[in-house]
From TrEMBL:
Recorded superkingdom: Eukaryota
Key words of the record: NADP, Oxidoreductase
Pfam annotation, one family: adh_short_C2
GO molecular function: oxidoreductase activity, acting on CH-OH group of donors
InterPro entries (UniProt xref): NAD(P)-bd_dom_sf, Sc_DH/Rdtase_CS, SDR_fam
Lineage, top ranks: Eukaryota, Fungi, Dikarya, Ascomycota, Pezizomycotina
Listed Gene3D superfamilies: NAD(P)-binding Rossmann-like Domain (3.40.50.720)
Stated family: Belongs to the short-chain dehydrogenases/reductases (SDR) family.
Protein name: 3-oxoacyl-[acyl-carrier protein] reductase
Length: 254
């Protein structure tokens, strides 16, 4: 792969595992220097950072939980202290409890909204003064934003909202900063979050849907998503903005 992101500076939230780790590695393969955020998985974060550095890229990690209101500024400050500017933001960190509406609590609602919507919004806000040339922002949504599904009221609401703010940011940040802002919408991906943490009833609900996925009758891999995100982070994607890009094998057409 040519170094299409040579010396670009990328922030990947939730970059210590799963989709985020795959995205961080693929951006580094293409030449980017990487800041990943992680919650408590410091060992996994160290492994991702080591892989990025093995490619000859610079990499740092910042511990930052989605409910921590100081996190966006701390992340931006760390990136600017290291590199002086920010070129790419991948808003990947996410939270989601499998919970039916009848069991929903204010605490579970706030946790998901803080991580999935407030955190990425204020991260981008803090980064604006430090944008490099032609910044790229990619938000990670979900097919659940359009397909719905049981057990997912706050999760679905936040992902639909993230698609909405993508359009707003594309308008606000486009000509003024030369930015593009896009969303991708994965379906189920074979990560530890999906395979280990998902309620068995939810897994049972999704099994027949995955077998009907047009691109292939299987669950996605992190690399399936990372390839699409990396393209949206490149100069070659300059004429796409404000879009939600199909990243689910056709499970949900956009």
């Amino acid at each position: 792969m040519a170094n299409t992101l040579q010396d670009r500076v990328a922030i990947v939230t939730g970059g210590s595992r799963g989709i985020g780790a795959g995205i961080a590695y693929e951006l580094a393969v293409r030449g980017a220097n990487i800041l990943i955020t992680y919650n408590n998985a410091s060992t996994q974060a160290d492994e991702v950072l080591a892989k990025v550095k093995a490619l000859g890229r610079e990499a740092i990690g910042v511990q930052a939980g989605g409910s921590d209101r100081t996190a966006p500024k701390r992340i931006v400050d760390a990136a600017v202290a290291k590199w002086g500017h920010i070129d790419i933001i991948i808003n990947n960190a996410g939270a989601g409890d499998d919970i039916l509406l009848k069991d929903l609590t204010h605490e579970s609602w706030d946790k998901v909204f803080d991580c999935n919507l407030r955190f990425p919004t204020f991260l981008v806000k803090e980064a604006i003064p430090y944008f490099g040339t032609a910044p790229r922002i990619v938000n990670i949504s979900s097919v659940i934003a359009r397909m719905g599904g049981a057990y997912a009221t706050p999760y679905c609401a936040t992902k639909a909202a993230l698609e909405g703010v993508t359009k707003v940011w594309a308008q606000e940040l486009g000509q003024q900063y030369g930015a593009t802002v896009n969303c991708v919408n994965p379906g189920p991906v074979a990560t530890d979050m999906w395979l280990r943490d998902t309620d068995p009833d939810v897994l049972k609900e999704w099994e027949p849907k995955m077998k009907e996925t047009p691109a292939a009758p299987r669950i996605a891999t992190p690399d399936d998503i990372a390839q699409i995100v990396a393209f949206l982070a490149e100069e070659r994607s300059r004429w796409s903005t404000g879009s939600t890009v199909n990243a689910n094998g056709g499970l949900c057409f956009v």
